[in-house]
Specification:
By secondary structure, this protein is mainly α. Helices cover 59% and strands 0% of the residues. The longest helix has 12 residues. It is globular and about 35 Å long.
Length: 80
């Protein structure tokens, strides 16, 4: 995704998948944030808010689907 079109507030599906992969490899929040070019607080909040999965493991695809469900209707109606 081009830097200029990347949301500063929300993670993309690709970013969430990368968070899941890197977390699965045992990387910490700060290292994941550094690799994605995001603030550590963004990654920490993402892991804390969207972690609940039946195995207790962060799932990027599931997190993205849940985030879209929780998005305000106006934001989804406006499109990307």
């Amino acid at each position: 995704m081009a830097e200029s079109s990347r949301s500063t507030r929300f993670l993309s599906l690709l970013e969430r998948q990368r968070v899941a992969t890197l977390r699965g490899r045992g990387l910490g929040v700060r290292e994941i944030a550094r690799r994605l070019g995001r603030a550590p607080s963004t990654i920490s909040r993402e892991l804390r808010r969207l972690r609940p999965h039946d195995r207790g493991i962060y799932d990027g695809d599931l997190a993205h689907a849940r985030a879209r469900e929780e998005a305000p209707a106006a934001a989804t109606a406006a499109g990307p």
